Amino acid sequence: MKHSYPAWQGRPGPAIRAAKAFALAVVVLLVLFPLWTVVATSLAAPQDVIANGGWVVWPQRITFDAYAEILDGGVVTRALLVSAGVTFVGTALSLTCTVFLAYALSRPGVYGSRPVLLLILFTFLFPPGMIPLFLVVRTTGLFDQYAALILPFLVNVFNLVVMRGFFQSIPAELLEAARIDGAGDLAILWRVVLPLSKAVLAVIGLFYAVAYWNRFFEAIIYFNDQSKWPIGTVLRQYVTGGADMTGEAVATAAPQSTQMAVVVLATAPIVLVYPFLQRYFVKGVLTGALKA
Amino acid sequence: MTKVTVTGGAADVSAIDAQRSSDVGRRPTAPAGRGDRGVRPGARRGHRQRIRRDRLLLLLMVPGVAYFVVFHYGALFGNTLAFLDYVPFLGIAGSEWVGLANFQQMFGDPGFWNAVRNTVVIAALQLVFFFPAPLALALLLHSLVGDVVRRFVQSVVYLPHFLSWVIVVALFQHMLGGAGVVNGWLGDLGLGSIHVIGNPDAYKPLVVAQVLWKECGWATIIFLAALSQVDEQQYEASALDGAGWWRRLWHVTLPGIRPVLVLLVVLRLGEFLDVGFEQFFLQRQAVGPEVGEVLDTFVYFTGFANGEFGYAAAAGLFKGVIGVALVYTANKVAHRLGEQGVYQR
After folding, report:
1. With an 8 Å Cβ cutoff, is B53 touching chain A?
2. How many CA atoms lie within 13 A of A238 on its CB side?
């Protein structure tokens, strides 16, 4: 972006710059402060949390007891492993299927590609309802299977359209050159298209991974076996079941820091991968949005 | 892998040569209506030959297409439930066909109309508050000169988009709950306390605030992209003519991003009834169905809590059909306004 003010505008006065800085600080704090107090409370000694009324902004004594407690092989540990597994397998499957489908649909004139594309775009207009989808999941025997958290969400139409748009923006000369060199369709995908698509693969991989990691509702209706719940569903128990988070009364400290530790663990993977993928966002989102 | 394309034999090779000299790489502008692949030989051949030629690509489509057929079109077929007195034990085939009885029950159900009313009110609030906020934030970010500050703020404000609703609700409870951070401060200052979480009167502002917190930053991406497209010379010219900040905003910036604004409003109107499910599912219990029920949660609780699957499917189908009608209407309006809309005519 530009590094100085344009000539016609001139440098704004100190009052305006102060107002801007203030507004930005407020926005940043509104986002970061809640996250910070959650981390702080999860790390604080239980007595300090009680003394302060259920939360702290700055832990006096830092302790990892809450984490040790929930990572000690209990419900939360298991749920984290389930979520990690579902996220990993789901993202791999989703990305593979999306790449294959987007690639086949991005090549001009493939037999049957137009009707297939229309068939898929129509689903965007009329997404499956909760009850009919439930019926399909039951009919296909996915109850109490981890696959029930993956297969019903295998390909996202938006992601597919973004990826197809990106593939189409690759200069046809490159593909043609590879073809003349004797490369087949798969070789072109592997050696020409995918190496050029790292940004869009990163963004869409992130979108899929985040969606899998955050999914909690489906486990409630598809799983009778609560030991298979992912972290989001377990966290929901704490959130809506834990009266101390909503209630008027001052919470007891131990559950409070434990609850916050669960929130932190459910958030951490996203916050950790986020900085590495962030630079691709704009590119990924916009190529798709403008092509759609 | 490389063998596959060679199967066409001599004819293909000569076709490639012909194309290489003429319109290689002109895929997007290849003559319309030919239905062939432009860069690929073997255009007007029989179906079987074309299938044979494209078999590898067709094979790649199979998993994805199978997904859409099973989980989208299978679910579409599952909407027949709406016309049945569905008993899970008997299945679709065994359940009694009741025609429009489920819909009749729905139209006479005060609970359903309550859900419709809540949905419409929340959607309208989202529409009113949700557009100005990201636009203002985008204008602010766009006016920043320093790259470092700007990048940092962008990184921060995009983040909540990636958090799950469970976490967002937990954060709001932690901040605004009865024993939350804000009430702690107010107590320290001797200002009493605010009752937000679990308060039916505060529910609608609360859910709108949550959506704003989660999505406002993310929504600036598209506004920022639009703002960077506005012609710099127009700003210069208007500034020379003595236009102040406000007039430049009104006469240059807003007209410049009009297509994007229209597109976004159309998109939002098209999914007007999709106020979101998880957010409301998580918080409905705390305030009760009177204010907390929206259409999606109505479907859930009718189906899964009361076991009235046919009735729930009818409500879901109703919402889906209205949704399609809204997208169609919104696009018509966009086309009338001379904009592209979501799909082109």
Report:
1. yes
2. 28
The closest CB to that of B75, out of A20, A129, A180, belongs to A129
Residue whose C-alpha is closest to residue A265's, from A118, A82, A88, A127: A82
The vertex-B343 CA angle with B339 and B345, nearest 5°, equals 75
Tokens 């494209």 locate to B54
- The tens digit of pLDDT for each residue in B17-74 reads 333 333 333 344 434 444 444 445 555 568 888 888 888 899 999 999 999 999 999 9
- Residue A259 falls inside a structural domain: no
Region B101-336: CATH code: 1.10.3720.10
d(CA A246, CA A248) in angstroms, rounded, equals 7
CB A246 within 8 A of CB B177: yes
Contact with chain A for residue B100, Cβ under 8 A: no
- Per the structure, the count of domains in chain A is 1
Q: What is the dihedral of CA B276, B278, B283, B284, to 10 degrees?
A: 70
Considering the entire predicted model, what is its pTM?
Answer: 0.85
A35 found inside a domain: no
- Taking contacts as CB-CB distances below 8 angstroms, the residues of chain A near B219 are none
| CATH 1.10.3720.10 location in chain B | 101-336
CB pair distance less than 8 Å for A278 and B158:
yes
Question: C-alpha angle with apex A209: A205 to A210, nearest 5 degrees?
Answer: 120
CATH number at residue A231: 1.10.3720.10
Residue indicated by tokens 């046919």: B310
Residues of the domain holding A149: 75-235+270-291
